[in-house]
């Protein structure tokens, strides 16, 4: 397998341009095992001044770096972002392991990793042809069943997601954060999931997908939401909500480059989140990047690299001052999070999260109480997103998997569901991704025995928690 290199360059003329070629190679510094927050912090840090180059690699899965290699052959550089696909036809599905292995190699070589999934309709099997399987339509009634818990098609969708879990888990185990772009081009009608705006449309399917995979413990996924530059606009009508999205992205196909209006529309949706061009056919120009500086990465689509660009255009794009290629990215180096942390969880008025009366039964209320040594206030915070009470062996749980404001918390058998997932925020809040809400003390009460709940994340003091050291 290829390895990344840094070079002491000499200059060689290729296609009318001067390119760096090897005089004396030395191995580039590989990326360490990192968190999604490391990658997001990096994307935010380059936004406005620089942009990461990217290249997608489509089928066959047996050659998951063929288009990335074309970039190297033309420019002497590898992209700063490798893109792959979990794919759809039987031969490629059987070769998903090669895609995952390539993703690990790219990360080790100093490139970010992105995965999309041209996923087969849940009305059919786990592999399919593109036409009739991915590029197809299902009825409104069928789609409603897909997004309705308890239906056969909803179960079929979750079973489809299960097919990807072992591969995504491998990347988690290897410390590889993945820019994961499911259900892409949600505003288009070529795919079975698309052209369904509104709260019960594609946005709901995205939320279900997010919650299901988060509940599987896949904390290495960076959730990339995506639309195409469809002139019909109205992209916000497909947005699943800030709690479900890390990166907001656009595919530029109706025109070579995003227009100023496209750029503004996407920024309005993203707010402070990073934005990206997730697919495009033409290599970016200096004018585009100077006029639209907030893009954090771009991704050239497979065969369009050479099909829509001359070698000179590709070379020029890769050597623009703003563009960051493999070996030029430096992730922030934070302190690794311990595998588990055990101790008290303290909050409002210095009081602790407590299992009422040191109970161990399912349904035991989780409350705020004056801190005291003992098993009722001992919690283990792990990397799987759970907060466990070792005395009972049970998890901090949202009653009946509720998502509404005011839903109370309890102890319950640890079961891997979204009701038991908690994400520590930089603000000190504990956020439940399934509901998009935070662990909260009702009304900011400091009375002993106040049962904790979930509520809209609002930054109040009664949503701030200190986890075990």
Strand numbers in spatial order across the main sheet? 4-5-6-7-8-9-10-11
What is the number of E strands?
A: 24
Cα shape: globular
Structural class: alpha/beta
Proportion of helical residues: 10-25%
**According to CATH, what is the topology of the largest domain?**
TIM Barrel
Spans where pLDDT lies below 50 across 5 or more residues: 1-29
| CATH superfamily membership of the largest domain | Glycosidases
* CA-atom Rg in angstroms: 24 Å
Given this structure, which CATH class of the largest domain is correct? Alpha Beta
The N- and C-terminal alpha carbons lie at a distance of 41 Å
What is the mean pLDDT? 90
Specify the CATH architecture of the largest domain.
Answer: Alpha-Beta Barrel
Beta-strand proportion? 15-25%
What is the count of structural domains?
Answer: 2
How would you sum up the major sheet? 8 strands, parallel
Count the helices. How many? 12
Molecular structure report:
This protein has 2 domains: 29-324, Glycosidases (TIM Barrel), CATH 3.20.20; 340-463, Trefoil (Acidic Fibroblast Growth Factor, subunit A). The protein has helices at 36-46, 66-75, 90-93, 96-108, 130-134, 140-146, 152-173, 202-215, 260-270, 286-291, 304-307, 311-318, and strands at residues 5-14, 17-27, 51-52, 54-56, 81-85, 112-116, 178-181, 221-228, 247-252, 275-280, 295-300, 323-324, 340-343, 352-355, 366-369, 379-382, 387-389, 394-398, 409-413, 423-424, 430-432, 437-440, 450-451, 453-456. The longest helix has 22 residues, at 152-173. By secondary structure, the chain is an alpha/beta fold. It contains 12 helices and 24 strands. Residues 1-29 have low confidence and may be disordered. The protein is globular and about 70 Å long.
């Amino acid at each position: 397998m290829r390895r990344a290199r840094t070079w002491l360059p000499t200059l060689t003329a290729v296609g009318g341009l001067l390119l760096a070629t090897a005089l004396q190679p030395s191995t580039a510094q590989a990326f360490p095992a990192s968190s999604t927050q490391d990658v997001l912090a990096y994307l935010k840090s380059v936004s406005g001044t620089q942009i990461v180059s990217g290249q997608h690699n489509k089928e066959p899965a047996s050659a998951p770096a063929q288009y990335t290699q074309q970039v190297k052959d033309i420019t002497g550089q590898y992209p700063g972002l490798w893109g792959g696909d979990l794919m759809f036809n039987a031969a490629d599905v059987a070769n998903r392991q090669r895609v995952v292995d390539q993703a690990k190699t790219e990360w080790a070589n100093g490139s970010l990793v992105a995965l999309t999934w041209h996923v087969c309709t849940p009305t059919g099997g786990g592999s399919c042809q593109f036409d009739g399987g991915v590029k197809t339509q299902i009825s409104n009634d069928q789609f409603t069943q897909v997004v309705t818990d308890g239906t056969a098609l909803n179960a079929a969708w979750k079973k489809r997601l299960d097919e990807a879990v072992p591969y995504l888990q491998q990347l988690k185990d290897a410390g590889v954060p993945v820019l994961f772009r499911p259900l892409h081009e949600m505003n288009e009608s070529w795919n079975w999931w698309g052209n369904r705006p509104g709260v019960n449309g594609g946005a709901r399917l995205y939320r279900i997908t997010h919650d299901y995979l988060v509940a599987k413990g896949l904390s290495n996924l960076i959730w990339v939401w995506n639309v195409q530059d469809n002139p019909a606009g109205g992209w916000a009508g497909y947005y699943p909500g800030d709690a479900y999205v890390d990166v907001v992205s656009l595919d530029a196909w109706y025109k070579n480059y995003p227009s100023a209006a496209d750029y503004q529309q996407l920024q309005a949706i993203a707010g402070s989140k990073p934005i990206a061009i997730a697919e495009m056919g033409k290599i970016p120009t200096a004018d585009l990047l100077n006029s639209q500086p907030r893009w954090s990465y771009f991704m050239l689509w497979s065969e369009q690299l050479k099909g829509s660009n001359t070698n000179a255009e590709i070379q020029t794009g890769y050597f623009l001052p703003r563009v960051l290629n493999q070996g030029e990215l430096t992730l922030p180096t934070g302190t690794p999070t311990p595998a588990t942390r055990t101790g008290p969880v303290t909050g409002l008025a210095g009081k602790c999260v407590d299992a009422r009366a040191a109970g161990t039964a399912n349904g035991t209320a989780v409350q705020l109480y004056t801190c005291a040594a003992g098993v009722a206030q001992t919690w283990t915070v792990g990397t799987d997103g759970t907060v466990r009470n070792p005395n009972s062996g049970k998890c901090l749980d949202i009653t009946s998997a509720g998502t509404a404001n005011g839903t109370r918390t309890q102890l319950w058998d640890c079961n891997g569901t979204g009701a038991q997932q908690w994400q520590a925020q930089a603000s000190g809040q504990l956020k439940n991704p399934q509901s998009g809400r935070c662990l909260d003390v009702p009304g900011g009460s400091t009375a002993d025995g106040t049962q904790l709940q979930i509520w809209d994340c609002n930054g109040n003091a009664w949503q701030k928690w200190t986890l075990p050291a």
